[in-house]
Design a protein that fits this description.
mainly beta; Immunoglobulin-like; Pectate Lyase C-like; 2 domains; 11-stranded parallel β-sheet; 10-stranded parallel β-sheet; 37 strands; disordered N terminus
């Protein structure tokens, strides 16, 4: 993907006559030809008319950015510029300048013979890209004294939501038509109330706060955020203490879907709506979650992608409100269009990384994951899907019930489960089922049973049983949204493996 430039000095010895000299001359020609094919310093005779000059770097207005989709679904940014005649290559560098006080090098200085390079695309980031023309000794051209600096941002401009106003009314009055992703931003340190459902419907929405000074959304009894077309929550803290039945998640799918989102029935009588765009919760804290974090709700939705990254989720969930509830899951039976019930619901891909989930009460009724039907083909027409759970700390989620239920058990479903601490967690094997394609290293997960002894399959295949303890001994402490790390210190202090894994924030 990247190729470093090389310059071969030309001298009389290198180009001496004879068989060997001829060979060297041919080799040099080939090397320069290869370089020209990349777009650097070329004309029809593989030489430039620019000689004895100091190069200038590409003009800022000529540098362009293009998003490329990688085979694994991630994205890269291709930076391109036109040829600077006479240059012998280019030096480039990318710096993350999102936080002016803590700028970091994203791509260290490197060189390229061509006129483009790639770097990983990150959301909500401001980049500074530097490109400098290099010299060409063959034409006695000197390198440019300065690099051209251009800015590139992945931050979508946002409508600022003023605190002190009706949050729902303000957002609804500023919603676009849904043709493009739209962003709303809460004020740094702002306090907001959500006393009724905030339903974005068929719109792709980013709702973000401030990374250094997160705002707080306090839910009332009817407070919930819903989506029918993808949602990203970033850098926001949530107080869910007052949320009440019949709500089932901090985030749910919309009560009604648009006709364009109706999914095919794949030969089954029942069908639902399809939500293709991802639901993302990133760098958020959730206090006193009474039911679930994400739930498909009461309507039949087939959800393509759910991601939880760098979050702290403190549950206060005893399972009495919904015996079939879960932290992440779908409904036991959901309504479709005319009120008839359907059994088609599912979540195809789940990603949970670098996060902590802990429950401050005992729960013998709920699971962490619960799907409506283990057969994803009913929802998506194919069996393949995935669950990636890495570098997480789970405490009492849940202590009296299996970790998963009705989750897929086919080779097409891929599970990666590594780097996780499972404290007072019961029966991982009901989620990590044996027929799935597994990436699970027993030596990179730990488990410790208190309410129930550790399941035999769990400790023989999926995790190492060892005594787990934390720096903080009181594990019933509510999350404090005003304190660093929520006022918690869940650093593992026992166990050979446990002290090296789990949510990275506690290790640091």
């Amino acid at each position: 993907m990247r190729k470093k430039s090389f310059i071969i000095p030309l001298n009389d010895n290198l180009l001496r006559r004879g068989k060997n000299g001829a060979l060297w001359s041919f080799t040099v020609g080939i090397l320069f030809l290869a370089s020209c094919s990349k777009g650097a310093d070329c004309d029809e005779s593989f030489s430039s008319s620019v000689q004895n000059a100091t190069m200038t770097s590409p003009k800022s207005e000529s540098i362009s950015f293009t998003t490329k989709i990688n085979s694994d679904g991630s994205e890269s940014v291709q930076v391109s510029w036109p040829v600077v005649h006479g240059a012998g290559g280019y030096e480039y560098e990318v710096i993350n300048v999102t936080d002016p006080d803590e700028m970091e090098v994203t791509v260290p200085k490197d060189t390229v013979d061509g006129t483009s390079f790639l770097f990983d695309k990150a959301e909500d980031t401001n980049f500074e890209v530097r490109v400098r023309s290099l010299g060409n000794p063959r034409q006695n051209n000197k390198e440019a004294t300065e690099a051209t600096i251009v800015n590139y941002s992945t931050i979508i401009p946002a409508v600022i939501v003023p605190q002190g106003q009706d949050m729902i009314a303000f957002i609804n009055s500023n919603l676009g038509d849904g043709s493009t992703e739209q962003a709303f931003e809460l004020e740094a340190g702002g306090q907001y109330e959500l006393n009724e459902p905030l339903d974005f419907g068929n719109r792709q929405i980013i709702l973000r706060g401030n990374k250094k000074n997160r705002p707080v959304i306090t839910y009332g009894e009817k407070g919930v955020i819903r989506t029918g077309n993808g949602l990203k929550l970033k850098f926001i803290n949530f107080d869910c203490t007052a949320q009440a039945k019949p709500l089932r998640g901090v985030v749910e799918c919309s009560v009604e879907g648009e006709a364009s989102l109706e999914g095919p029935n794949f030969g089954y009588l029942d069908q639902g709506y399809v939500l293709q765009n991802p639901i993302v919760m990133q760098e958020c804290w959730f206090k006193n979650v009474n039911f679930g974090l994400f739930h498909t709700g009461t309507t039949a939705w087939m959800v393509r992608d759910v991601r939880v990254m760098d979050c702290i989720v403190q549950l206060k969930c005893d399972g009495k409100a919904f015996g079939d509830g879960s932290v992440i899951g779908s409904c036991k039976a959901a309504d479709y269009k005319n009120g008839s019930q359907t059994w088609t619901c599912g979540i195809r891909d789940i990603t949970i990384k670098n996060s902590t989930f802990y429950n401050i009460v005992s729960n013998s009724k709920n699971r962490f994951f619960r799907f409506n039907n283990k057969d994803l083909k009913r929802s998506f027409g194919v069996q393949d899907g995935s669950a990636t759970i890495e570098n997480c700390t789970f405490i009492k989620t849940f202590d009296g019930k299996e970790f998963g239920n009705n989750t897929p058990n086919t080779k097409e479903y891929k599970i990666s489960f590594n780097g996780n601490i499972c404290y007072d967690v019961f029966r991982l094997q009901k989620f990590i089922q044996g027929n799935c394609t597994l990436t699970v290293d027993q030596t990179k997960n730990t488990i410790y049973g208190i309410t129930n002894s550790v399941d035999g399959t769990d400790k023989s295949k999926y995790a190492t049983e060892e005594t787990i303890a934390f720096e903080q001994t009181d594990l019933t402490k509510e999350l404090d949204l005003t304190q660093p790390n929520g006022g918690l210190n869940l650093k593992p202090v026992s166990g050979t493996i446990s002290t090296t894994i789990g949510d990275p924030r506690w290790l640091n």
